[in-house]
User: Fold this.
Amino acid sequence: MDRRTVLRATVLGAGTATFAGALWQQAFAAVAQPGPSPYGALLAADANGIQLPAGFTSRVVARSGQRVGGTSYVWHRAPDGGACFAAGTGWIYVSNSEIPLTGGASAIRFAADASIVSAYRILGGTNVNCAGGATPWGTWLSCEEVPLGRVFETWPDGSRTAEERTRMGRFTHEAAACDPHRQVVYLTEDEPDGCFYRFVPDTWGDLRTGRVQVLCAPADQVAGPVTWRDVPDRDGVPIPTRLQVGAAKHFNGGEGCWYDRGTCWFTTKGDNRVWAYDAVNQRIDLAYDDDLVPAGTAPLTGVDNITGTGGGDLYVAEDGGNLEINIITPAGVVAPMLRIVGQDGSEITGPAFSPDGRRLYFSSQRGISGASSGSGGITYEVTGPFRS
Assistant:
């Protein structure tokens, strides 16, 4: 019996899982399946090389190594994880730089009419800043994707100098997602045997002190209850954090992470899965697995960064595949929402919606050139009738 057959039997045999989170509005007995997009089919590529549904348009807002339009600021190489923050009548889009030693993060500030007001650095001198996450108090957590990597708390408006948050654990950090109801921060780890963590601060809103815990469950479990245990040594020396708790469940290459109303969604690139952690009932389930759709029909592969909307849709970016952002609807349909053509050597990073939900920002990390240095990175904006 092959892996696909075993997984299908395991997941379906687990019965119908009911998610507490509002992103999944109904119970389901299987993972998301391919279907028609609520936006319709993708049209031919536009002048920016983006295939979009009818009614949507794209523009380039920044290119690595070039000045951001209307400013003197040179955009960073290898743009990666990102998020949007309200700022007066406009908003700010922040983006990490996934390059060694000088990585950091930058920001672009937009006016209410989406014109660019300014661009600037909010973090520098850090190492391979991959993904991260926004906090409810308006800061951006920028994470280093290296062994013994750190988390830095940054201020999108540039009003304060970034601060190191090493009490959140030293490991190969990827993404972070805040759960204000349980007052914890979920953290993914980009290792083939990585773990899924949560940071429990002593005081919510202050990430300087607290405990790091790791999710524990049987190794082969894809649906069912889980527990959390403290990590004895968050500094990971000499034993890496992922190896300190014997009962810890290991995930194949943790990537994006997104929390909304009781559910934390996270992705694993090694097995092309989207997981759902039901924080209310403390259980995990599979929301998507490319091995659990009909052979040869998986629209979503190379799962990476993830974001969501207030209406319940998830948007998952591809690192590989055919360079798409796919939508997963609350009804359990997965379909392409956009596709970048002519950039096969790149990956899509940093998807994030403007505060009003009308604009989606993301980057092609290596762009047309595909250069490993990230010198060809391009950051885009897509505008259109997104579902609220």
Observations:
- The chain has one domain: 3-383.
